[in-house]
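Hi support team,

I submitted a single chain yesterday and got back a structure, but I'm not sure I'm reading the token output correctly. Could someone confirm the output below corresponds to the sequence I sent? I've pasted both exactly as they appear in my results page.

Thanks,
R.
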Amino acid sequence: MPMPFVNRRTPVPSTAPTPVQQPARPGRRTIVDSAIYENGIRVASPGSLAETFRALHSSNGGMAWIGLYRPSEAELHSLADEFDLHELAVEDAISAHQRPKLERYDDVLFVVLRAADYLDVPEEVAFGELHVFIGRNFVITVRHSESPDLSHVRRRMEADPELLAMGPESVLYAIIDTVVDEYAPVVAGLANDIDEIETQVFDRLDSNVSRRIYELSSEVIDFQRATHPLATVVEALQQGSEKYEVEEELQRKLRDVADHLTVVNERVDGFRSMLRDILTVNATLVTERQNARMAQLSELGHKQGEDTKKISAWAAILFTPSLIASIYGMNFSHMPELHWVWGYPFAVFLMVVLAVLLWFIFRKQNWL
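Hi R., thanks for writing in. Yes, this is the structure output for that exact sequence:
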């Protein structure tokens, strides 16, 4: 079931008493900016939540835009009491670590967004989490990281009072638009890394390229977890726009954001397919290189075996004459044929015959 924009036709005025503002943690400012707007113009800049509540009550149809950075539980519960925020949404805002989603609690929309920032040196994608509460006359943003920086979003909206006068929905549009726009540098950074990996795979065959492909694939998957659910959020907002009488101009702007997000998701899906194919190609090239190396080693071993056979054959051929010569070279007085006239020629003849016979035998066995 789609989660639409805020119901502007059934406003529920806040009747809860103004709570006492809880002190912020020492050394940390949780209220980044707080303002009251009437007809798109900032009319008050309260310094605390209690002052914001009083200023909103005394305004003439004004809208409060409260920006918080890592607020305490007491501060969030104070906002919940004032604006009737659902306890489940407050619990999600406290614990963080949520996937992008949109939920409706009566007349309050709760939106979770994941911003992304590409870090070039470590080749990583850093993610930030943003929770947005949208009501009839208020916008509350809760950041749990430095990104996204919403100060320029506020300046942009304040520079366009006509757009800001369209109410809390216009602020939600501007925030989503900024988050999606900041995906573009991430896409460019990932594309550049993939190009570098392709160069490594086909040019250098770097032994660390497989690890780099795996790590980059993990970054792409994490990025998908931020962008794909956001498409569902934007679609739900589009489906609820007409039902809840959202300004036509905002509907057109939201469709433009949806188009940009579609392009991002298509690129990211393509990255994942490319990395999978690159990993397969790299594995194939590594296997071919290993097979070539094994073939070289096998050829070298065969050559060494042939050389060993030749050396052994010649050693055997030379050993036989040496054996005969060594026997006849012994200094014995009584040796057969010692004084035979043909003894020396016969010994030489025997040496030659045996050497030639061995040469033919080894030659026939392809040892020589």
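A quick pointer for reading it: The chain is about 60% helix and 15% strand. Let us know if anything else looks off.

Best,
Support desk
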